[in-house]
């Protein structure tokens, strides 16, 4: 038997809409498609399967949204980590262009889905800023913006003066604004997706850890603490919490923690002086800092923190100090929450889809930009699960390649974060 772990002590846990009932699975089941992992990837796939009348059963170890999906920055960012030109160079014109269209369309897809299912999750589409505070990053971002503009995307490149107006600080010398970006309340969104999937006909079981996965006759057999599931097809959607269900999968990603600190609601005047038009912003620095002001005037500052679970803003005091450096008017403001969760980084920084055996599909590694991407991947994965190998999707399906020297990566991540912070502090 397992017991449900509590949600991380986030602002979201204190403010989200109520969860839909997702009781543990306690009777054996035979289903068309079983999905392991109840984050955006698993829930969106279940919803898109159910919409097409296909039976889908989600097995979630804790509760829907317990992982990165209920604890992230809440930014809906268009695109992948890599520039459009790079994507075409890496995957060729045909697949590359499909990947670009798909990935830059993920935010519109997500916000449209939220509207269609009327998911109450404080969703807004006020744009994403990708901002630079040094010349090298500014040049790179301007180049990315030009690539997007050439492809007809709603993107502009902003200079220092424009950024001072948009962010209330003169830290940034250049940024790309993509008006398709936005934000939402991550846990309310995860719970809303679970509710939508269930109302469309999917089954979602919390507190149901998938313990093992193996072939049995023509089906796959998944053992859980109280019951056994037999499924024609299986999707693994476990991202930064990937365990040993599939051989070597754990070694294809580096699970890293990202942390967030949140203020109490700011006065209207302070909130307006920081970001009057309420876009979301992520920095292009040695380590990524990302922030937004939510619909209740709270500032949510995110970035890399300790590589262990945290439970208070004092665990990420550098984020608070950094915020005060950007906006001195924040001094004395109360920081009410500090929390973190784990995301999955891949070696090539692309999301990975694998099909390592017949009727097994795996999707993981959104590299810190999975709110919109995982949601939209859900539709792609559903298409593949229904249509089989003939159903092309807009992302490459690759072999499982463990990262060499994987055991040493946590050490590497910690030193990279420390080195990044020092370089950022020195302004180099
Ligand atoms: C702090 C933080 C901030 C972030 N900020 C942003 C942001 O602003 N914008 C953005 O686009 N992205 C952001 N991300 C990334 C984004 O949250 C993720 O890419 C996305 O939520 C991944 O969704 P998922 O469903 O693939 O994984 P998850 O939401 O992590 O879900 C995986 C689930 O699998 C379950 N599981 C694992 N193993 C088993 C098993 N054996 N049996 C049953 N269940 C299992 C886990 O309990 C977990 O709930 C952030 C991530 C973090 C951690």
TrEMBL record:
Cross-referenced Gene3D superfamilies: D-Amino Acid Oxidase, subunit A, domain 2, FAD/NAD(P)-binding domain
Residue ranges occupied by any FAD dependent oxidoreductase domain in the UniProt entry: 33-383
UniProt keyword terms in alphabetical order: Oxidoreductase
Domain of life the protein comes from: Bacteria
InterPro entries: FAD-dep_OxRdtase, FAD/NAD-bd_sf
Recorded GO CC terms: cytoplasm
Molecular function GO labels: oxidoreductase activity
One family name in Pfam for this protein: DAO
Protein name, as recorded: FAD-dependent oxidoreductase
């Amino acid at each position: 038997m397992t017991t449900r772990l509590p949600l991380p002590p986030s602002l979201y846990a204190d403010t989200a809409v109520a969860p839909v009932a997702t009781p543990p699975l306690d009777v054996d089941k035979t289903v068309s498609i079983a999905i392991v992992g109840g984050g955006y990837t698993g829930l969106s796939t279940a919803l898109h399967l159910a919409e097409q009348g296909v039976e889908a059963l989600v097995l979630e170890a804790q509760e829907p949204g317990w992982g990165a999906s209920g604890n992230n920055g809440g930014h809906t960012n268009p695109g992948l980590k890599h520039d459009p030109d790079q994507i075409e160079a890496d995957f060729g014109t045909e697949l590359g262009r499909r990947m670009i269209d798909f990935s830059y369309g993920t935010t519109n897809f997500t916000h449209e889905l939220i509207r269609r299912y009327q998911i109450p999750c404080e969703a807004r589409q006020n744009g994403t800023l990708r901002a630079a505070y040094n010349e090298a990053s500014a040049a790179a971002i301007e180049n990315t913006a030009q690539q997007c503009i050439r492809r007809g995307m709603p993107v502009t490149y902003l200079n220092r003066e424009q950024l001072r107006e948009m962010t209330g600080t003169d830290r940034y010398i250049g940024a790309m604004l993509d008006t398709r970006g936005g934000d939402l309340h991550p846990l309310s969104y995860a719970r809303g997706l679970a509710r939508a999937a269930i109302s469309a006909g999917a089954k979602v079981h919390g507190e149901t850890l998938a313990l093992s996965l193996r072939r049995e006759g023509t089906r796959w057999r998944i053992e859980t603490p109280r019951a056994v599931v037999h499924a024609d097809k299986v999707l693994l959607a476990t991202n930064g919490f990937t365990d040993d269900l599939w051989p070597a999968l754990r070694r294809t990603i580096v699970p890293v923690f990202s942390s967030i600190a949140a203020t109490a609601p700011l006065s209207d005047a302070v909130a307006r002086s920081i970001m009057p038009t309420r876009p979301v912003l992520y920095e292009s620095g040695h380590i990524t800092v990302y922030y937004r002001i939510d619909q209740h005037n709270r500032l949510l500052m995110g970035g890399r923190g300790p590589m262990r679970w945290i439970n208070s803003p004092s665990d990420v005091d550098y984020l608070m100090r950094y915020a005060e450096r950007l906006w001195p008017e924040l001094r004395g403001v109360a920081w009410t929450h500090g929390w973190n969760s784990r995301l999955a980084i891949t070696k090539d920084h692309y999301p990975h889809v694998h099909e390592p055996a017949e009727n097994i599909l795996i999707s993981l590694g959104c590299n810190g930009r999975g709110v919109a991407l995982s949601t939209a991947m859900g539709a792609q994965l559903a298409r593949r699960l229904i249509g089989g190998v003939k159903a092309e999707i807009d992302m490459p399906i690759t072999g499982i390649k463990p990262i060499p020297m994987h055991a040493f990566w946590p050490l590497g991540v910690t030193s990279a974060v420390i080195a990044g912070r020092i370089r950022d502090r020195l302004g180099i």
